[in-house]
């Protein structure tokens, strides 16, 4: 018989800065490890979210490793064997389970997958679970990079475990965004489930960490999408502890919800007693035994609708204070009667105040400092669903709780935006930044897209030199001349447009003009030629030209050499076009 202790959502390090609740997660995790030793299990199976954060503090890491070292490192002999290809199913550098390492004495192995809080992130796709795996404290399996947009197929390689006549195929899959995993489960051959080649009967056990949506495939995983060959599914992420296993219509497997070991959301589901599951497998049969956790902080939950309460008047704050005070006092008394450990209890009262005024929860909780563990958030005000629908129809907005937000809203917003960055990369970076506190997520995304963008961008043009600035002025003068002179505007196809021919021809003409001036003119005339003002160009362009001497047509007369035009310099002493400057052959000087 193979004995397994199953626990999910330990959330180590939760509220580690709270003076009252900072050790709750560690106390419960240590109790879980002690229960594994007391019940002489073969190994511990964790269903994700071992840590509350992707990058836990040093204090959290040290406390976690101290607990694992105290209960898991010993001289006890491991009674089962792993007969599968360990390098294919375990995500570590060494490619084997930790208890087969001769340098370590592992008496209580731990197998774990990652969850939503402690999943891989960053450029290298690492998390705190990889630290424990590198230290040989846990066997980390089912790792898939949840933010990679290049992963089109997933191969789920099981850990084949044999103990006597019992053979168990342990499948694991770390958390992937629900929308992506749901789409892959609905597409054939997107997820490949590796199976044993031998003819032995294998008990197929699957552990994963996803949001569950019964009868729906949106914003969660529908149990109907899971393959039928499975025998038992350990469902992590759901904090509600369901004592009995659940049957799935049309499927041959059962589902077990161990629930979280520490209350994090203070909801009605968290108020149920916390348990771990002792799973005993022999052949193709299994037995489930729920073991209550005694170190969990007591938690009492109640819901109140003010419209149904007697003695509560509209806009009467004093009456509301008195009524809520009685409710909270009764809940505190229940925790004392239950005989639980002397820990300050958690109390949450959800108040439907539709049609009534509210009070300040922090001010109300000051009375219970030292009596409850959460004095600042005892009261949670909310509106009824009918009231919220009325506000939606009238265009009003109402603040939603974080767990009510649509997970697909981020993807939809990114898809609707016109982004320069790659949509899939930005989507993954946003999830890592928000959910995993990966501060370098956007930096990595930006570096990746900058390399791609460099290939598409042209080089910046160089600054214009002094000579090119002068040529630009000449082009502007020529453009003005063409606009003002009707003869130039009627040149048709025989004269190229200024915007196409002038920039290049003007530059070559200007360079030729400098050479000619240095060879044929003296220094005074050369300086006079170079320092032509814009006013003189405009005057020259606006002068009316006399009729041709030979009586040639306009077409033949307008076939003017542009380079010759730029070499023509105005003269102050001679009206015939200058001594050195040569006038066009077909024009009268």
From TrEMBL:
Gene3D superfamilies, per the entry: 3.60.21.10, Mre11, capping domain (3.30.110.110)
Single biological process term from Gene Ontology: mitotic G2 DNA damage checkpoint signaling
Transmembrane segments: none
Cofactor: Mn(2+)
Comp. bias (Basic and acidic residues): 521-538, 573-589
PANTHER family: DOUBLE-STRAND BREAK REPAIR PROTEIN MRE11
Function: Core component of the MRN complex, which plays a central role in double-strand break (DSB) repair, DNA recombination, maintenance of telomere integrity and meiosis. The MRN complex is involved in the repair of DNA double-strand breaks (DSBs) via homologous recombination (HR), an error-free mechanism which primarily occurs during S and G2 phases. The complex (1) mediates the end resection of damaged DNA, which generates proper single-stranded DNA, a key initial steps in HR, and is (2) required for the recruitment of other repair factors and efficient activation of ATM and ATR upon DNA damage.
Name listed for the protein in its UniProt record: Double-strand break repair protein
Organism: Oryza rufipogon
Lineage: Eukaryota, Viridiplantae, Streptophyta, Embryophyta, Tracheophyta
């Amino acid at each position: 018989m193979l004995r397994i202790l199953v626990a999910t959502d330990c959330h180590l390090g939760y509220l580690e800065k709270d003076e009252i609740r900072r050790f709750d997660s560690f106390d419960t995790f240590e109790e879980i490890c002690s229960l594994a030793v007391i019940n002489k299990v073969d190994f511990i199976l964790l269903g994700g979210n071992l840590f509350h954060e992707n990058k836990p503090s040093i204090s959290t890491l040290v406390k976690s490793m101290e607990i694992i070292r105290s209960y898991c490192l010993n001289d006890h002999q491991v009674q089962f064997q792993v007969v599968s290809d360990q390098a294919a199913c375990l995500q570590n550098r060494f490619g084997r389970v930790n208890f087969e390492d001769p340098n370590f004495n592992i008496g209580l192995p731990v197998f774990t997958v990652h969850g939503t809080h402690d999943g891989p992130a960053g450029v290298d796709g690492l998390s705190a679970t990889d630290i424990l795996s590198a230290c040989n404290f846990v066997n980390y399996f089912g790792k898939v990079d949840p933010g990679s947009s290049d992963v089109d197929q997933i191969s789920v390689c099981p850990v084949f475990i044999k103990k006597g006549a019992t053979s168990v195929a342990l499948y694991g899959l770390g958390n992937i965004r629900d929308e992506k995993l749901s789409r892959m489960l609905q597409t054939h051959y997107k997820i490949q489930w590796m199976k044993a080649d031998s003819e032995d009967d294998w008990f197929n056990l699957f552990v994963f960490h996803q949001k569950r949506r019964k009868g729906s495939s949106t914003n969660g995983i529908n149990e109907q999408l899971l393959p039928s060959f499975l025998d038992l599914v350990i469902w992590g992420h759901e904090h509600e502890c369901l004592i009995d296993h659940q049957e799935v219509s049309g499927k041959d497997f059962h589902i077990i919800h161990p629930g979280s070991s520490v209350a994090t959301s203070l909801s009605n589901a968290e108020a149920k007693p916390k348990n771990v599951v002792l799973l005993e497998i022999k052949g193709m049969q299994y037995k489930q035994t729920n073991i209550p956790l005694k170190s969990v902080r007591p938690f009492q939950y109640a819901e109140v609708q003010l419209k149904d309460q007697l003695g509560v008047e509209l806009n009467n704050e004093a009456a509301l204070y008195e009524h809520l005070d009685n409710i909270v006092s009764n809940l505190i008394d229940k925790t004392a009667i239950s005989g639980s450990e002397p820990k300050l209890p958690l109390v949450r009262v959800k108040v439907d105040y539709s049609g009534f005024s509210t009070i300040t929860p922090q001010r109300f909780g000051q009375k219970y400092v030292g009596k409850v563990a959460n004095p600042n958030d005892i009261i949670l005000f909310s509106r009824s669903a009918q009231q919220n629908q009325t506000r939606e129809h009238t265009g009003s907005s109402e603040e939603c709780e974080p767990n009510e937000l649509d997970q697909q809203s981020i993807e939809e917003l990114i898809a609707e935006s016109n982004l320069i960055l790659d949509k899939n990369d930005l989507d993954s970076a946003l999830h890592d930044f928000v959910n995993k506190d990966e501060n370098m997520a956007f930096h990595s995304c930006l570096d990746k897209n900058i390399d791609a963008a460099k290939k598409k961008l042209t080089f910046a043009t160089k600054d214009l030199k002094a000579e090119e600035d002068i040529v630009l002025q000449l082009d502007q003068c020529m453009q003005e001349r063409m606009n003002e002179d009707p003869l130039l505007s009627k040149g048709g196809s025989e004269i190229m447009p200024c915007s196409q021919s002038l920039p290049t021809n003007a530059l070559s003409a200007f360079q030729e003009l400098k050479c000619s001036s240095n060879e044929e003119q003296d220094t005074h005339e050369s300086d006079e030629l170079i320092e032509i003002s814009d006013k003189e160009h405009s005057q020259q362009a606006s002068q009316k030209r006399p009729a041709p001497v030979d009586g040639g047509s306009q077409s033949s007369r307008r076939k003017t050499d542009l380079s010759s035009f730029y070499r023509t310099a105005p003269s102050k002493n001679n009206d015939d076009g200058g001594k050195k400057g040569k006038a066009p052959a077909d024009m009268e000087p």
